[in-house]
Amino acid sequence: MASIMDAFSRAFENGQIKNKSTVVVESDEDSAEEHRKNDEKKRAEKRKAHTGKRPSKTKRRQTKFTVRTAKPTVSVTAEVFPEIMSVESHFTGVSDSAELLVAETNFFAQQNNDNSHVRPFDFPYIRALIQRPPLPSFDIHKFNDRERLRVNVQRVNRAYEEQFLREPIGSERQCLQNSNCEGLNISSAKDRAFILREFLLPTEQAEYEATGKYPPQRVTCVMCRRKELARAYFGIRGDNMSVELDSTLQDYCNIVNVKNEYRLEDCFVTHRRVYEGVLDPVVWHIRSAYRLREINITDAAGKRHLVRHYEQWRMPYPANTSENHFLFRAPSN
């Protein structure tokens, strides 16, 4: 029995050995050699990193910048800087030097603004002094102080006023507004627009002709004065206010509805029921009413000049009338 079992086991083992496939592993000598070289290279790089000599850094170039010491401060004295301590020598005897012109321009530029030459923070206070609520029972024809206020208002005819609608010549001074003069805003003149001469009242002009001296304070031209009066007039009317009865906005007036003068339609006056500070007519300032012309002017020395002049071509003369306008008749009681 044991011999049969032994024989069967040996036969079974022999059959299993035959069925097994023989796997032959071929060694890749080249691949192994390559791995070995790579490992040696890595080890050599590590050793070099720890023990090898590091490359030397390049030396910085020395800068060529030279340090300059600051100059010592020196006090300004008449002995060290005589020209600085005596600047008045540059202005002696020079009335229209460039420095004086710049100083005057800067001075008047600070004084001038759109609030009738009043500083912006002073304008509300001054306006409050002039304005007052309108009186419901006011009548301009029953205003007894009209004649007293008219004493300070000078009448100006058209011919006299048109003498100031040109550019200044000789010693004449230009408008106080300078580059903001209304003469530069006349569109029909285009690039030939100019700054007008200052407007002198008849008493000021008479004094100049007698003494040869202008008023100490330069004033505005005809156009700028018309504009300022109209602006104040509409400001009071727009605020629905009136003017204090002891004051007036104007210092001159125009003659209307008389031969060779202005028409009343081209002027503005105070409303009959609300006193707005304009007792007698003043011509409107309308930019489209002027056009540029060139005229010949003879100065005081007898020299003739061809100057630019604005003609009031859209302000026609009044029609002939034998009756004076009611503004120039005494009010009936």
Describe this structure in words.
The structure is a single chain. The protein is of the alpha+beta class and 333 residues long. The chain has a domain at 98-326. 30% of the residues lie in helices and 9% in strands. It has eight helices and eight strands. It has helices at 2-19, 29-51, 98-111, 123-130, 146-150, 158-162, 202-211, 222-238; strands spanning 131-132, 154-156, 242-243, 252-254, 267-268, 282-283, 291-298, 304-311. The strands form four sheets. The chain has a two-stranded antiparallel ribbon. Strands 2-4 form a two-stranded parallel ribbon. Strands 5-6 form a two-stranded antiparallel sheet. Strand 7 and strand 8 (304-311) form a beta hairpin. The longest helix has 23 residues, at 29-51. It is elongated. The termini are far apart.
Topology:
Elements: H1 2-19, H2 29-51, H3 98-111, H4 123-130, E1 131-132, H5 146-150, E2 154-156, H6 158-162, H7 202-211, H8 222-238, E3 242-243, E4 252-254, E5 267-268, E6 282-283, E7 291-298, E8 304-311
Parallel strand pairs: 2-4
Antiparallel strand pairs: 1-3, 5-6, 7-8
Low-confidence stretches: 91-95, 328-333
Rg to the nearest angstrom? 51 Å
Query: What letter string, H or E per element, gives the SSE order?
Result: HHHHEHEHHHEEEEEE
Strand order of the largest sheet: 1-3
Form type: elongated
Question: Which range does the strand content fall in?
Answer: 5-15%
User: What is the helix tally?
Assistant: 8
